[in-house]
Design goal:
The structure is a single chain. The protein has five helices and no strands. It starts with a helix and ends with a helix. The radius of gyration is 17 Å and the shape is elongated. It has 106 residues and is an all-alpha fold. About 12% of the residues have low confidence. The longest helix has 15 residues.
Length: 106
């Protein structure tokens, strides 16, 4: 990363850099999250965590229509919402941020 920044730091065409994407911190559409090492538990998808996530969303957005507006989604009920496991982040940014905001050990 330091080498890349050093190489491009004075280029007027570079206005910003998404260091998370460049380092490979995203969710892979093929398998588990690629930023999760074998000994870490960054993501938990147990029923307790999923329930807590939905409760947090309900408190944050108040009604399902508001969540649908922000996420550009079409959910009918909170129980339909699942945590992010895979996705294309150009489309998943809002719900990815919400999922990460609720993470804590289960």
């Amino acid at each position: 990363m330091a080498r890349t920044v050093d190489r491009y730091k004075d280029r007027p065409s570079v206005l910003g850099w998404d260091t998370g994407a460049e380092a490979g911190v995203w969710v892979s559409a093929i398998s588990n999250p690629v930023d999760q090492g074998p000994q870490t538990k960054l993501y938990c998808y147990c029923p307790y965590t999923v329930r807590r996530y939905r409760d947090w969303l309900r408190r944050k957005y108040g009604e399902i229509g508001k969540l649908n507006e922000v996420w550009a989604a079409h959910y009918d009920d909170w129980s339909q919402i699942e945590p992010v496991r895979v996705g294309i982040f150009e489309r998943a940014e809002s719900f990815w941020i919400d999922w990460r905001a609720t993470l804590a050990p289960c």
